[in-house]
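Minutes, structural biology subgroup

Action item carried over from last meeting: produce the C-alpha cell record for Serine--tRNA ligase (Gluconobacter potus). EB confirmed the sequence was re-checked against the source entry. Recorded below for completeness.
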Amino acid sequence: MHDLKALRANPAAFDAALARRGLSPVGQQLVSDDEERRAALAALQEAQGARKALAKEIGLLKRQKLDTAEIEVKAVALRDQIAGLEERANTIQTRIDDVLKSLPNRLDASVPDGKSEDENVVVHVRGEKREFAFETKQHFELGEALGLMDFPTAAKLSGTRFVVLRGALARLERALGQFMLDTHTTEFGYSETSVPLLVNDEAMYGTDKLPKFAEDSFRTEDGRWLIPTAEVPLTASVMGDILPADALPIRMTALSQCFRSEAGSAGRDVRGMLRQHQFTKCELVSVVKPEDSDAEHERMTQVAETVLERLGITFRRMLLCAGDTGFGAAKTFDLEAWLPGQKAWREISSCSNTRDFQARRMNARYRAENGPAFVNTLNGSGLAVGRTMIAVMETYQNEDGSIDIPEVLRPYMGGLNRIG
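Output recorded by EB:
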C-alpha cells in the first residue's frame, strides 16, 4: 500500500502528503508502531533460539537418563513467552495494516492544491460549442419522445436508476462500444479482453476498491462482487505476478457492463441515464515500468480524447485538484463533454495514474535490473458508453426531435444517418 521504508526515513514528508488531501498526520504513530513490532519480532527470534537450545539440552539429558524437570519448566515458560510475542507482533501488524489500508495514494507533485471540483484546472478545450436556433432538449426528453428510451419499464423490472433502450438507440449504444473497441485495438495497440463480471475480494482489494468503497459496489450471496468497472479484472489479471521486463508495457481494453450502488448519490441526476446502477463502459488499463508511467498517462488520455474528437463532441480536459483526486490515484485527468441539453460540462472519462499503489496491494512486480520491482498501473475510461450516447444525442439533436448520427458511427448503424 505504502512504502514503510520511505515512511520510516521521513514521516514528516508522509504526513505532508496526507495534509494535501485534508487528512490528519499518522506518520510518527506508524513509525512508533513499526518499531514496537520489530522489537517484538527481535524478542521472538531470541526466544525461539533459546527454546531450540533448551530442546537440545533436554534431549541430551534424557539420553543420559538425567532429570529434566527444571529445564522443561523453563521450556514451557519460553513457549508461553513465544506465543505472547507472536500475538503481540501480529496485533501491531494488524493495527499498522488497518491504518495503511485506509490511507489514499500520495499525490503527484503536479497535482494542484484545492478542496473540491471547483478548483480543478482546465488543461485545454477541444471543439466549439454548437449554436442552436431552437431550445435544446436533454437526452431523456429526446429519447422518450422517440419512444426508444423507457424508464418506467426499467423501474418495473429493477427499480430506479435503470433504463430500457429500444430500436435505434439500443443499436447506437452498441455502435458506440464497438467503435471505441475498434479504435483502441486497431490503432493504439490495446489488447481486447473479455473479463468476468464477478470478482473475488482479492481482486477488489488489489485495485483499491476494498475496504473503502464496499458500499458503492454490489455483492453476491456467495461473497463475490459485481465489477464497478472493468479496471478491476483487467488490472488484477497481473496480481501476484513477476512479469518479464520485456513484456511491458501491457495495454488492455474491455467493453463490459459495470455495476455501482451509487451510495450517497440520492437526489443527484435522478432523471435520465447519467447516474445508473448498470452501465456499459470501454475501459483502458496499462501496466508499465515506473519510469514510463507519466508518458503512458498522457498517451492514455489522448487515446480517450481521440474518440471524442472523431465523434465531434466538444470537450475539455481537467487536471483534478488534491481534494477531487480519487483514493487510489496519484494524478487524474477528467474529460468533460459539453451537453447542450443540460447546458453543462459533464465527466465522460477519467484517466488516472496510480503509480505503484495498486501494484503494492496486488504484489504485482516485474524483473528489473536490480531484482523484482513493483510495476505502475494506469486506468481510464475510453469511454463511458452511456454518457457518450447522451453527448451524441444532445449534440446532434434537431428541432423536430430527430438525432443525426455522427459520420464515424454510420457504418456501425447499417448506414443509418438519422434517428427519428
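Discussion: The two ends are 52 Å apart (CA to CA).
Next step: EB to file the record with the rest of the batch.
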